[in-house]
Amino acid sequence: MKILGIESSCDETAAAVVADGVNILSNRVSSQIDIHSRYGGVVPEVASRQHLLSILPVISDALKEARTGFDEISAIAVTNGPGLAGSLIVGVNAAKAIAAARGIPLVAVNHLHGHIYANWLSGRIPEFPCLCLTVSGGHTDLVLMKGHGQYQLLGRTRDDAAGEAFDKAARILGLSYPGGPAIDRASQDGEAVLDLPRSWIPGSHDFSFSGLKTALLRLVENGEVCSVNDAAASFQKAVVDVLVTKTLNCAHEYNVKQILLAGGVAANNLLRKQLSEQSPLPVSIPPIGLCTDNAAVIASCGYFRFISGGQDRLDMDVLPALSVVS
Ligand code: KG4
Ligand code: ZN
Predict the structure, then answer these.
(1) Which of 36, 57, 132, 137 could make an S-S bridge to 260, C-beta 3.0–4.6 Å?
(2) What is the pTM of this model?
(3) Entry cofactor note text?
(4) How far apart are CA 318 and CA 320, in angstroms?
């Protein structure tokens, strides 16, 4: 069964065709990074206008690469939230238009669930119950999954998301946008020599990164940072220490079979290394191209929703503030 996935929640316009929820036939992403980097962050109005220009060519390329016509598509899965309203509207309306014109079922997908399904596209099928650490630009969530479509939120950030913290720290250090990859690169030539705080929040699986960011800012303002690479490595280590330790504690408490990693920050090299080295349980870490925003993960998640009866009407709307549990 082939699913067409469409994703436009932030600054990537993406379309993909996935067979049976696990085989990627095509996965096209048109990135707007070059456009937004001159502003140091995503400009929502610019993003939605760019999605409008890219959406139809990207969908058409994805179908062509998969050698698939609309008549072979069993359902269209599209991200309807969370994300930027103007960006989401473009993908959702493209999906609705095709669904209406071709009589194809429409399946709305929560972007955060989509990120988790990168783990179903990585060659091995995860075992339930599993604990997923989703770390992206807008979210840092620890989610327990006991089956497809069953999400229980065990912990979340109380302030900045991990990706947001990376992006803000990069700005403080004068590194390029997007900040996460820039800090990752700079860290490779640095030593984690700065003493930065870690927020453990005892008795809770929640996270907090705003104090760490402020501590870095103070050190920079006081002239106590002599090497950008060392500061980047110190900041990255502080974030990763907390993410890994809290994830392993939570996995132990809930007695899961496996840990899954998801979201853009899952592309971080130190996080990938530390989590797999320190975990006594199997850890699923998707390839980097499936961690950042793409439509194959939306198609995969949409497939598992669709085969268990999930389908949406054409009056389905965007939900910019959707959480991992609704
Ligand atoms: O999941 P994503 O592509 O978009 C959202 O849904 O937010 O995540 C984007 C976030 C950005 O904050 C970016 O800086 C971060 O993921 N990121 C990284 C790395 N690659 C992307 N953070 C740390 N290390 C990386 N290598
Ligand atoms: Zn994302």
Answers:
(1) 132
(2) 0.95
(3) Binds 1 Fe(2+) ion per subunit.
(4) 6
